TrEMBL record, chain A:
It comes from the Bacteria. GO terms for molecular function: ATP binding. Pfam families: ABC_tran. Keywords: ATP-binding, Nucleotide-binding, Translocase, Transport. Coiled coil: none annotated. Residues 2-239 form the ABC transporter domain. The lineage of its organism: Bacteria, Bacillati, Bacillota, Bacilli, Bacillales. The keyword Secreted does not apply. The keyword Magnesium does not apply. Transmembrane segments: none annotated. This is ABC transporter ATP-binding protein.
UniProtKB/TrEMBL annotation, chain B:
This is Iron ABC transporter permease. The chain crosses the membrane at residues 6-26, 71-88, 100-120, 127-148, 160-180, 201-221, 248-275, 287-306, 318-337. Keywords: Membrane, Transmembrane, Transmembrane helix. It comes from the Bacteria. It comes from Paenibacillus brevis. The keyword Iron does not apply.
Length: 267, 347
């Protein structure tokens, strides 16, 4: 589905990513974790095609990502940003319709004649029907993030990139959001790549994790292998216990008081 | 959206027709409204043949040769400036942007004034010389203003307006200087600084019409892109929009429209600012409505302004730019005030 080959990227003198290799298969749910400045956002920008790698290649369905036309790319790959949608005066329905942009010709006609139906279906699934005619500016943060997800769903992508999607949500909306993404993945065979801050949430929902540290891959694999006190200590310099989740045994972290002795270089 | 557009569109077109008849009717010789409607209808294909000509030739000459060209030109200039203003606001995501505040009008006026000063209006490529030169100087001005205002790749609203004002004063001084230096063409250059529709024949209308139609169609087709841009540039790029290309094309087309309008009527301020905002008050921020309705609103507004300009102190004519500034400037102030209120309530 998605392949990253020997990718490096630098901003001026600062090396953001160095020789990254990574393969994502169709239908997988990947979490990308790592401390601030480890290159997570850069990686996401390279994957979404908004930035170009200095060397190496990003392949989407075996084709270099830069060979896609903007609209064509947006029909395959969608991005949900951390800050979601601004509080504009467009209604939820209008914003969802904007998600159809890559399918519209210059007069605004949709190439899928069932577009109307697709939008209705999405609103049903995301419980947005009752909010359809409300302007975004009148919605709560959680509702707005749901509308943002709806807009991304309207793009009918095969792969979505989530950039810390739950940062500004309270715990109930965080779980609700992850559940919505998970059910979409199960229904449509969607591939999900999510940059996550919350390691416990990442461990609960992701099949696999990519751990980044100062621009390098520090580990890739299932949460059971990676969410260990040693790795957390090494990457985040935080002391923690790892305990299996009572329900299904995913590793969950319990943080310990007091900072670790070794501190990262930048401090 | 569609039903809204149809509703407002019919309302706007109705107002437009009524305005047209009233504005043609006003003047030193009175022509009854019914006669005007009949004369106008007579010229429309199909319907025309059903109207019996029952009017004096004098009335027809006044309507067709004197008043109608002027009123129609007002309609076109107003539409063009309002649509250009809506496009500038959308693409720069700045509610205070318009051809006047960005200095594009003044830039175009400088090009036009230089041509007139040296008597070169029709050299080089005939009637297209003036619009092309005005476009070039207008686009150059826009480039300088955007470059001045840019801070770390972003263009803050306040510095954009500031650099626009600076350019506008500077270019205004150039035009004033040319006016002072010129002896025989003094009145003609004066037109460019305050705007006028006086004594413009049908040829001017014919020059402007294709710019308005092509520009309107292009910008209307970009309306969904402008809507996406309202969500932020990154968001728009992720939704499949070619952000840089859209921005550059839209700015160029809006500049070209401004230049065409300025080259026939001079600098008329505030139309491009006020009209899209008035439309927004009714329709919200959907550019699929704002662009076409601005064309109607701008035309109506300009016809009334020109009527005021030529009839309030008749036979003396008030410069058109003075009228639009009298209406537009207070509205501009109101926008600033409201923006401040919104910011205060947010913090």
């Amino acid at each position: 589905m998605l392949e990253v080959k020997q990718v490096s990227k630098a901003y001026g003198k600062q090396q953001a990513l160095k020789d990254i290799d990574w393969k994502v298969k169709q239908g997988e749910f990947w979490g990308v974790i790592g401390p601030n400045g480890s290159g997570k956002s850069t990686l996401l920008n390279l994957l979404s095609g908004t930035e170009m790698a200095d060397s190496g290649e990003v392949l989407l369905l075996d084709k270099p990502i830069r060979s896609y036309r903007r609209k064509e790319l947006s029909r395959r790959l969608a991005v949900l940003q951390q800050d979601g949608l601004p509080p504009v005066s467009f209604t939820v329905r209008e914003v969802l319709e904007m998600g159809r942009y890559p399918f519209q010709n210059w007069r605004g006609a949709d190439m899928d004649e069932h577009a109307e139906h697709i939008l209705e279906d999405i609103m049903q699934r995301l419980d947005l029907t009752s909010l359809a005619d409300r302007p975004l500016s009148s919605l709560s943060g959680g509702q707005r993030q749901r509308a943002a997800l709806g807009k991304v769903m309207a793009q009918q992508p095969e792969i979505i990139l989530l950039d810390e999607p739950t940062t500004f949500l309270d715990i109930r909306y965080q779980l609700q959001f992850m559940e919505l993404v998970e059910s979409w993945r199960q229904q449509d065979g969607l591939t999900v790549i999510a940059v996550m801050h919350d390691l416990n949430l990442a461990s609960l929902y992701c099949d696999a994790l990519l751990v980044l540290d100062r621009g390098h891959v520090a580990g890739a694999g299932c949460p059971q292998q990676l969410i260990t006190p040693e790795l957390i200590q090494r990457i985040f310099t935080v002391n923690a216990y790892s305990v299996p989740h009572p329900d299904h045994g995913e590793p969950q972290l319990l943080y310990r008081k007091g900072l670790s002795q070794t501190t990262p270089d930048e401090f | 959206m569609r039903s809204k557009l149809t509703g407002y569109g019919i309302l706007g077109l109705g107002l437009l027709c009524i305005t047209l008849v009233i504005c043609v009717g006003f003047g030193s010789v009175s022509v009854p409204a019914r006669e005007i409607a009949a004369i106008l209808a007579h010229r429309i294909p199909v319907i025309g043949s059903m109207v019996e000509p029952q009017w004096s030739t004098a009335s027809e000459t006044i309507v067709m040769q004197v008043r109608l060209p002027r009123v129609l030109l007002g309609l076109l200039v107003g539409s063009t400036l309002a649509v250009a203003g809506a496009a500038f606001q959308g693409v720069l995501r700045n509610p205070l942007a318009d051809p006047f505040t960005l200095g594009v009008s003044s830039g175009s006026a400088v090009g036009a004034a230089v041509l007139i000063f040296f008597g070169w209006q029709f050299s080089w490529i005939g009637i297209f010389t003036l619009p092309v030169v005005a476009f070039t100087t207008g686009a150059l001005t826009l480039g300088i203003v955007l470059w001045l205002a840019r801070e770390q790749g972003k263009i803050p609203a306040e510095s954009l307006i500031l650099s626009g004002v600076v350019m506008q004063s500077f270019l205004g001084a150039i035009v004033s200087f040319l006016t002072a230096m010129s002896k025989k063409t003094i009145n003609e250059i004066m037109y460019w600084t305050m705007g006028s529709l006086n004594l413009r024949g049908w040829s001017y209308t014919a020059i402007l019409l294709p710019y308005l139609l092509a520009g309107l169609i292009f910008l209307w087709s970009q309306a969904r892109s402008l809507n996406l841009l309202a969500l932020g540039e990154k968001q728009a790029a992720h939704s499949g929009l070619h952000v840089e290309r859209t921005k550059i094309l839209t700015l160029l087309v809006a500049t070209l429209m401004t230049a065409a309008a300025v080259s026939v009527s001079g600098v008329i301020g505030f139309v491009g600012l006020v009209i899209p905002h008035m439309i927004r008050l009714f329709t919200g921020s959907d550019y699929r409505l704002i662009i076409p309705l601005s064309a109607l609103g701008g035309g109506i507004f300009m016809m009334w302004s020109d009527l005021a300009a030529r009839s309030l102190l008749a036979p003396t004519e008030i410069p058109l730019g003075v009228i639009t500034a009298f209406i537009g400037a207070p509205f501009f102030g109101y926008l600033l005030y409201r923006k401040k209120k919104v910011r205060e309530s947010e913090s």
